[in-house]
Design goal:
The structure holds 2 protein chains of 2 kinds.
Chain A (H helix, E strand, L loop, with lengths): L3 E4 L2 E4 L5 E7 L5 E8 L3 E10 L2 E4 L6 E7 L2 E6 L8 E8 L9 E2 L3 E5 L1
Chain B lengths: L3 E3 L4 E4 L4 E7 L6 E7 L6 E7 L2 E5 L2 E6 L4 E6 L8 E8 L10 E2 L3 E6 L1
Parallel strand pairs in B: 2-11
Antiparallel strand pairs in B: 1-3, 3-8, 4-5, 4-9, 6-7, 7-8, 9-10, 9-11
Chain lengths: 114, 114
């Protein structure tokens, strides 16, 4: 998985609770991404980062926030989890500008919101 | 209408068959085309990427892009049971442009029967 780890790998939580997912990379890549994967929708971009403290919204950012204080770590926070946020969450990294945007994915986090 | 359409399958073939997987798209600005393979409960892994139109071959895999028809294909020769996975197409516009994020298809589930 290209030097990418995600934690936790599985989580069950209750509606209304905050949840933070962590992505850690050892490749020193500039770009990091958070996706969610749901049946019938494929992979959809939530937020991405193009450097430390530089982030931007993706296609489905409502209800999510992110932070990147170090190159290697990208955190995704669900401020108040809802059942519609039950999904598999993938982190991805890429080298970014200067070559085609090929992204390498982590192993995923399965989140169940009851 | 989704920007990228992909038949979800499932597609079941006997071992040794030639497999054809396809995606269509609507955004003529897409210039980079990728194929990812995703095993069950794993993160997607990059198989191949191509820039603009044409063919690219890597072992048993051939990626083909027809920009005039907005149609891309992945061919797998001499398919093996280990090829059983979900195959995701992904696309991106010109570097630095408004569409410099990957847009994914929903994936096609392939089963190669021994």
């Amino acid at each position: 998985d290209a030097g990418i780890t995600q934690s936790p790998r599985h989580k069950v939580t209750e509606t209304g609770t905050p949840v933070t997912l962590r992505c850690h990379q050892t490749e020193n890549h500039r770009y990091m991404y958070w996706y969610r994967q749901d049946p019938g929708h494929g992979l959809r971009l939530i937020h991405y980062s193009y450097g430390v403290k530089d982030t931007d919204k993706g296609e489905v950012s409502d209800g999510y926030s992110v932070s990147r204080s170090k190159t290697e770590d990208f955190l995704l926070t669900l401020e108040s989890a809802t059942s519609s946020q039950t999904s598999v969450y993938f982190c991805a990294i890429s080298e970014g500008r200067g070559r085609p945007e090929t992204q390498y994915f982590g192993p995923g986090t399965r989140l169940l919101v009851l | 209408q989704k920007e990228v359409e992909q038949d979800p399958g499932p597609l079941s073939v006997p071992e040794g068959a030639i497999v054809s997987l396809n995606c269509t798209y609507s955004n003529s600005a897409f210039q980079y085309f990728m194929w990812y393979r995703q095993y069950s409960r794993k993160g997607p892994e990059l198989l191949m990427y191509t820039y603009s139109s044409g063919n690219k071959e890597d072992g048993r895999f051939t990626a083909q892009v027809d920009k005039s028809s907005k149609y891309i294909s992945l061919f797998i020769r001499d398919s093996q049971p280990s090829d059983s996975a979900t195959y995701l197409c992904a696309m991106m516009g010109p570097y630095g442009g408004a569409t410099n994020k990957l847009i994914f298809g929903t994936g096609t589930l392939l089963a190669v029967q021994p």
